[in-house]
Amino acid sequence: MTALKNAKFKITPQRLAVVDFVSKNTLGHFTAEQVFKSAKENEPTITLATTYNALYALEKAGALRSFELKNTTWFESRIKFHANFICNECGKIYDIDVDEKKLRSLINSKGFDIENMDLIISGTCKNCLKLGTKVKAIQHDSFTV
Ligand SMILES: [Zn+2]
Ligand SMILES: [Zn+2]
Hints:
The protein has 145 residues and is an alpha+beta fold. The chain folds into 2 domains: 11-76, Arc Repressor Mutant, subunit A; 82-131, 2-Layer Sandwich (Dna Ligase, domain 1), CATH 3.30.1490. It has 6 helices and 6 strands, in the order ααβααββββαβα. The chain has helices at 2-6, 13-24, 32-42, 48-60, 100-109, 126-131, and strands spanning 29-31, 65-69, 72-76, 82-87, 93-97, 119-123. Strand 4 (82-87) and strand 5 (93-97) form a beta hairpin. Helix 2 packs across helix 3 (32-42) and helix 2 (13-24) packs across helix 4. The longest helix is centred in the middle third of the chain and has 13 residues, at 48-60. The two termini are 25 Å apart. The relative contact order is 0.13. The model is unreliable at 139-144 (pLDDT under 50). The chain binds zinc ion (2 copies). One zinc ion is lined by residues 87, 89-90, 92, 125, 127-128.
């Protein structure tokens, strides 16, 4: 949370509860509802709206990233650019490393100017494929998960 020290992030008890969740979280990707439910245990005065505000303030401060997926906003503390792969079978979200520079120059070389880049990919994850939920011959070998 060193980014917060450099940013103008106003600390309130409610925000502190959110920061606490984010710094201890092991989920990787989480929704405001999940943060709210957990933060409420330590800080009963917190509301869902305060939770959202705190999460967006943290994103502005560079401590979080967010992306939209099927009308849900997901947050994550992994700031480094990557693709988020959501499994349609188990609902798990995987981080997949992507060469941001290569992708940017590819898009720029086509004459486009990038403002925002979010990579959301959906499909079936390797675990579900192994379980045979779906029998598909998909090559995921080029991905580093
Ligand atoms: Zn899966
Ligand atoms: Zn991610």
